[in-house]
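ok so I'm stuck.
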Amino acid sequence: MKKIPLLAPLLLSVSLCLSISSCSKYLDVEHFFDDRQSEDRIFKSKDYTEQWLGNCYNKLLDYNLEMGHRNYTISNYSDDMFYNESAGGNGDEYRRFKFGEYDYTWQRQSWAQSYGGIRQASVMIHSMAEGGAFTPKQVTDYKAQARFIRAYLYWLLLRKYGPVPIMPDKGVDYDESYDKLAYPRNTYDEVATFIAEEMALAAQDLPLKRDNRNIARPTRGAALATRAKALLFAASPLANGNAEMSDFTDDKGRALISAQYNEEKWARAAAAAKDVIDLNAYKLYTADFKAKGTTDYPATITPPYHPAYSEKNFPEGWANIDPFESYRAVFNGDLYAAENPEMIFTRGENQTDENHGIIALTRHQMPQVGGGYNCHGITLKQCDAYAMNDGTTFNRQQIRQQYGANMFVQKAELDQFKPLLENVWKDFAHREPRFYASVAYSGTLWTMSSATSNLSNVTNKQIFYYRGENEGMINGDRWLPTGIGMMKFVNPKDNATGNGGKIYPKVEIAIRYADLLLMYAEALNEINGSHMIASWDGKTTHQITRNIDQMKNSIGMVRIRAGVPNYDNAIYTDQTALRRQIKGERQIELLGENQRYYDLRRWKDAPIDEAQQIYGYNVYMTKDNADLFYTPVRVPQLQTIFSKKMYFWPVDWDELRKNRRMTQAPGWPSFD
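replied:
not stuck anymore, here's the structure
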């Protein structure tokens, strides 16, 4: 079956689009429309209208991607992942990023790109009318798509820059001077509320589902899910009762972050997430149990017997599913977008060249023998965060006491320690299925079995990261300073060698149902009272309380799909304990999906988690001293700090110079 080019009708080359280089130019741009007649001509032409809308969609790519090359998605790297590539070699750029030594010139394009898309979408919302080549229903849908894109771009700006200006979308005299057109930042709550209201409006006119050809266009669920995300961020500690941000003000001294805590914000976030759940349009993807398998797609490794889950089918249990494949296939390209019931919003196959999107991310993770760059990996903290296969916490000391001097898997032990191969360290044994779908530990089998040509000389390679090995420590960038690689997003057939191999396209899932389930549980857990919150369309009212059954059901689906037991009731009855577990669950489930960087900030956990020393294995050890390789050590190249200025990204000085009402984020120098 041939894949459908998901964004073909959307990502057109748009000569009509104005080049917007800053928020101020957004307000002072040369007119595209010379008169009303030109405006009518454009939006009564199907081709011109598609091109106009296509350019709006283009603003969601490049520097607004969720997953891809670090040049475009640097916020994908937190305390969980690292990259070891830079002009200076040996991770110098990563060190500068983690020490806050970046400035407004880093990834500055996302601001102008977003505001350019906001203007483009606003013109379409207010200029497209019935008649011409479109039916009233089509006009409604096109305008709803533009409204979604505009609100989504504001969501991306809010998440990265914090409170930003909400631009007027009509009634602006573009002949006015910069000083008269300058706009200050709106408050965090104002921006979040604007996003929520706009997404609710868009949801009224967006369909519940799209056909395969249009699957990358937004749906009602995508709008409501983005609404839930914005409200969750507004409810989180960074924006809800944060007196430490009292110095984040507009040009008139108005505080932009609320210093007064309001529990109802959590209730609104929970109700918004429930709105998505109540659509009954999404479910977690699961792969069927496999009694037999191949090297690429191995037989199901059944989780340890559990009386509550082993004999029941999903979602009550895991008897009929393959937890490893259920998780792996969501990300690695094995699923067409239309086959993934978990996907709420996608940009399609993101950007298929090797310099932008998930293909670029994948190639940087893959070993050099398979045509990869072997320079993106994960920290020991992330590796150790994965539970054992019975759901208990990983305990290095306990494991080493258990196996003593017999820490390497022997040939006679292979059946006992599946999926580990011979000579693999037993710290990696009997871990939960998401570990094996995500972590490329030393001794992992990289299948790289591309079907496009005969690549037998580079397939099924067991890769060790000892010094002196092909993928071990070297001078330069192409090695892993922690000695731990990353397998998530890699397809078993991915092979980028020059003799006919390729990296298979992957659908970027910007929002997925597992995230919404965890969001819902997180918001409910913060509720101490009872709140009546209207649904998104006002047709019903949600009674929001700290409902243990609903939290248990939401989190349970995510964990059971992953082949690990749900938490005990003692966890669910303890608000603090459950908060800690939800944070850990998001760290594991959403690895590499551009979530943790922002999660740690909205929780205000970044000053601790982002400032901890980064540990890995002792990559200076050779194969002859393999047992010493697995001694946790501090990794000098990957150290980090956190300061207050790192909560929000700095605004470009060019923007501050042109917009005199714009204020800089706390801790960053302002234009003088």
